[in-house]
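Dear Dr. H.,

I hope your travels went smoothly. While you were away I took the liberty of generating a structure for the chain from your last submission, since the lab meeting agenda had it listed for discussion. I wanted you to have the full record in hand beforehand rather than looking at slides cold. The sequence, exactly as received, is reproduced here:
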Amino acid sequence: MKFSTELDDDKLHEECGVFGVFLNDPARDAASLAYYGLLSLQHRGQESAGIAAARDGTIECRKGMGLVGDVFNADTVAQLKGSAAVGHVRYSTAGGSCVENAQPFVSRFKLGSIAVAHNGTLTNADVVRELLEDAGIGFTSSSDSEVIVNLIAKNYKKGLEKALTDTIKFIKGSYALVVLTGDAMVAARDPNGIRPLCLGKVDGGWILASESCAIDAVDGEFVRDIEPGELILINKDGVLSFSFSEKTPRAVCSFEYVYFARPDSIIDKVDVYGSRIRAGEILGRESAVSADLVVGVPDSGVPAAIGYGRATGTLFGLGIVKSKYVGRTFIAPDQAVREKAVSVKHNVICREVRGKRVVIIDDSIVRGTTSRRLVSILRKAGAREVHIRVCSPPVRFPCYFGIDTPHRKDLISNENSVSELCKSLGADSLAFISVAGLLESLDANEENSYCLGCFTGEYPIPVSGEEERVRG
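The corresponding predicted structure, in token form, is as follows:
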């Protein structure tokens, strides 16, 4: 038997990235742009990738397990003809890791075809699925995203706009949604804006993407974020905007800034790289310690380490190196080898840390495996002291909106005080940024608020509280 373990075992994992292209010239093909857009969103999901393209009222789709470059090559992309395309990369949180759950989902029916790419998690997926099955609608996957495509298809006779508004009013939870039809593309973002989605322009057309970095990747121009509770319709006549919900407090996922998003992205007018720098500065202000060197755990801990160094006057150095060629999953035959696998991903530059008091800056601690290993290899490399500073508050609660979190009992901060956790990790000291400090780093205000559920247990949408729910 083979077992797999996450090399990023001490990290939370995002679910998906979505990308859409609509070109005004029907002679142009959009799939190649979708391919490059997905490559720039690869950090959001490495389990599967897919692209669907629309031509002459029909939709063709190619998808498979693995990275974008594993699933697609020049020939497979060239086979996807059409001036509009939607793409998806996936890390499963709802539904297992198998090709049946890969997206986009395509539904072909009497009135036409649709393809759906979805980032997020529906909190009422099981209820909706049961209602659809009672109505005679079958499912080929265990993904809650297929619930959305079947709900749209069921209501499609009412017209696209009505089918979509009826669907998104019925579903609950988080979603950044891109829907492709034979002659249009539609996007919607949940009323709280938990998952990101933005609009861009490209020569002769329009782009929809989970992050602005994907618009940059295809030489597009960022236009704006899709607003929470907004539906965007793109067709040959241009872009139309509709609001499908009453104004609801914005609750963007704070972990997008802490870890998930690429540093060159801007989400809801907040610069991700700048927010990480500020988090490090605030962390230095809240919990400075005398040290000779500050290092960041690659990649998202590095900007925060720069900020911490600026705030405390501590020299910043490249003390930890991350292998760029190690994937998320490592196949290992037993637990001892799985635990050893963490060293494949990170190594220490000994001459940089030897004899020094070192501060490690990380974005989060989830299970503690990676942090414990980093402390060990830093001491082995000759570090005199090792202090851990974390630019997110302790993760104590599960997420229900599109992040793959362990059960609460497996979150190391849930049952341990900071001092107990410090001792467990073998560090000389440990401190987390405060919730107030995190919000300050994100420029939070009444108009710009965030979901902090995994830190505080307070969620923007009511949840069942069932912590043993099945996670993909």
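Two observations you may find useful: Residues 1-8, 328-335, 466-472 have pLDDT under 50 and may be disordered. The first strand starts at residue 3 and ends at 6.

With kind regards,
E. W.
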